[in-house]
Design brief:
The chain has 15 helices and 20 strands. It is α/β, with parallel strands linked by helices and 482 residues long. The longest helix is centred in the first third of the chain and has 20 residues, at 41-60. Bound molecules: nicotinamide-adenine-dinucleotide (NAD).
Length: 482
């Protein structure tokens, strides 16, 4: 990738600051591909002023007018899929691009004028009550490293359609992709100040939580930081939705289709190198599912670092994952497939931060699986004897993003769906992401705040409902309300 400096984008212009800068390393080969400034309150203040100035005119347009920008943006995205995918590949290492999902999210936002019509009802003689979704003003979206294009599209297109002005804080590990979003929205005709991008780390995030000009904050990242952001933003009386980490459990029954289960689970836990909050993390095997585990291992052996498996985001994260595997191995868990020293194949660079897919099996009864999120291409298997035990194990996880059942029995699948303590349930699905208009959002320590972030949930979160009650004719018969 051509070396591009990550600059802030404020009021329609890329702006260089004199702040200290961090190197941005490509996980593909460990080379420096960019630098990112560590900004703070002053740059945020400039962004908030730009957004505040843009808000009256932008929110004053009809939503149909605002969505015209998104139609043009959608077409620009379609024409530049491979260019964007190449940037994501360089800075995040991802082999399969996420741009198609960003396009789908933009399509949903294009439909917002059709689904936010509000309600109207004659509530009394001569009296009509109606509702309107009204924008909040200046809002902020804080993003993680693992989906540098898609996660910003969870929030940007929806806010554009709804009439808010938005401040985006990308992860300092992947700041370059966001620049393309700004560039392309500008090309689509988005007025200056409606989208602003500020770079930084903890200091910038804290400034966002504290700034009195920002009405609502969304956060996507680890649970530890989600808690900090949720507490700090809500203490400052902001609306906040903070999505955290995950450890997703898949309950596998002996009657599950072996082929489908093995391929879906492999794709789920190794896709994006396991760096996604919806990845399959744990199989809770009920009874004897050895034939499925065997197929799963065979399928996993086809996944090769550098060939069809991308790297981990950083050397630090890679070391953390390896330490986790070392630790559970020491505690007695069996490593069925060991990715710790897997060779890098194909076009992959030996200096890239690669780990091969790894499958860990815990004995029953016996060694305990740690509760923490691994966030790498690591899949863990625990054994139980009954569905009740499986549900108890799943419910005991502090997280609650996703849970799945793999079975051919509808009754058992429905029982898992009813009893699992997770916001997104899959039946024979490895990555049960609800697609729009359904909303994305987990439970428990995977999400802090009310409602969901995308789809219809996003409309509720990013707007406030105005209720207007009207009467015009004084000669109308009056009752207690008129
Ligand atoms: P992270 O929590 O380290 O960083 C997320 C954001 O918080 C970044 O913008 C970063 O600059 C900022 N940040 C980092 N440290 C901070 C601190 N001490 N104080 C304030 N802000 C800070 O997360 P990550 O490593 O970028 O992303 C991976 C995590 O995100 C995983 O836990 C994953 O499960 C989670 N995730 C969750 C979802 C979901 O929908 N629930 C989606 C994607 C990723």
């Amino acid at each position: 990738m051509k070396h591009v400096e990550a600059d802030n984008f404020i009021n329609g212009k890329f702006i260089r600051t004199e702040r200290p800068r961090l190197n941005v390393y490509s996980p593909l080969d460990g080379m420096v591909i960019s630098t990112v400034p560590l900004c703070g309150y002053n740059e945020l203040e400039e962004a908030v002023i730009a957004a505040k100035n843009a808000f009256p005119k932008w929110s004053g347009l009809t939503s149909k007018k605002r969505s015209e920008v998104l139609y043009r943006y959608h077409s620009i995205l379609l024409h530049h899929i491979s260019e964007i995918a190449a940037i994501i590949h360089d800075e995040n290492g991802k082999a399969i691009a996420e741009v198609e999902k960003s396009i789908e999210l933009t399509e949903f936002a294009c439909s917002i004028p059709q689904i936010t019509a509000g309600e109207i009802l004659k509530v009394s003689e001569g009296v009509v009550c109606q509702t309107e979704y009204t924008p909040l003003g200046v809002v902020a979206s804080i993003c993680p490293f693992n989906f540098p294009h898609m996660v910003p599209h969870w929030t940007i297109p929806t806010n554009i359609a709804l009439g808010n002005c938005i401040i985006l804080k990308p992860s300092e590990q992947v700041p370059v992709t966001a620049l393309k979003i700004a560039e392309m929205l500008k090309e689509a005709g988005l007025p200056d100040g409606v989208l602003n991008i500020v770079h930084g780390d903890k200091t910038m995030v804290e400034a966002i939580c504290d700034h009195p000009g920002i009405k609502a904050v969304s956060f996507v990242g680890s649970t530890e930081i989600a808690k900090v952001v949720y507490r700090r933003s809500t203490t400052n009386l902001k609306r906040c939705l903070a999505l955290g980490g995950a450890k997703n459990h898949l309950i596998v029954f002996p009657d599950a289709d072996p082929e489908m289960t093995a391929t879906d689970i492999t794709a789920s836990f190794s896709g994006t190198s396991g760096q996604r909050c919806m990845a399959a993390s744990v199989m809770i095997a009920i009874g004897n599912v050895d034939h499925i585990i065997e197929k799963l291992c065979n399928e996993t052996r086809k996944v090769k670092p550098g060939l069809n498996l991308g790297p981990i985001i950083s050397q630090t994260s890679k070391e953390k994952i390896i330490k986790y595997i070392d630790r559970v191995e020491k505690s007695g868990a069996k490593i069925l497939i060991d990715g710790r020293n897997a060779p890098v194949e194909g076009e992959g660079d030996k200096n890239g931060y690669y780990i091969g897919p790894t499958i860990i099996e815990y004995s029953y009864p016996g060694n305990q699986m740690p509760q923490e999120e691994v966030f790498g291409p690591v899949f863990e298997i625990v054994h139980v004897k009954s569905l009740d035990e499986a549900i108890a194990l799943e419910n005991n996880s502090p997280y609650g993003n996703a849970a799945s059942a793999f079975t051919q029995n509808g009754g058992l699948a429905d029982e898992v769906a009813a009893k699992a303590s997770a916001g997104m349930i899959g039946i024979n699905i490895g990555v049960p992401v609800p697609r729009e208009p359904f909303s994305f959002g987990g439970w428990n320590d995977s999400k802090f705040g009310t409602g969901d972030l995308t789809g219809k949930g996003g409309i509720e979160f990013w707007t406030q409902l105005k209720k207007i009650t009207k009467k015009w004719k004084k000669q109308e018969r009056t009752d207690w309300m008129s």
